[in-house]
Amino acid sequence: MNDLRMKRVESLIREQVSTLIMNQELKDPRINTLLSITSVKVSNDLSSAKLYVSGLEGEAKLKKSVAALNHAAGFIQNRVGKQIRMRLTPKMLFLPDTSVRDGYMLNQKIEHLLHDKTEEE
After folding, report:
1. What confidence tens digit (pLDDT) does each residue in 28-45 have?
2. Which of 2, 9, 31, 81 is deepest in the core (most CB within 10 A)?
3. CB of 94 within 8 A of CB of 69?
4. Is the Cα torsion angle 76, 79, 84, 89 positive or negative in sign?
5. What does pTM read for this prediction?
6. Is residue 116 classed exposed, middle or buried when 0-12, 13-18 and 19+ CB atoms within 10 A define those classes?
């Protein structure tokens, strides 16, 4: 599959799902509007897509939101399929994205190590 086309499909899916979340078209109360789709990875045959979700309200609420999004994946797939014109709409799997938190924790550890090193000198 052409890389440019893959990127375009990923971008369109990310945009459409983000719009559904922001416009509160998903009625599940576990899904809040502060969620963001950080990245989308579509398989080479366009049959499936992994959507990474991050949120500002902590890990427990993020897991609940991801579960709710996976519960509504068929509805979301249907809505996205109506907006983007493709023969097949990828089956969507939502996953929590902890990269921001992991990056923050790594920076904290580095700063802690640097602080300890300067105190020893």
Report:
1. 889 888 889 999 999 999
2. 31
3. yes
4. positive
5. 0.80
6. exposed
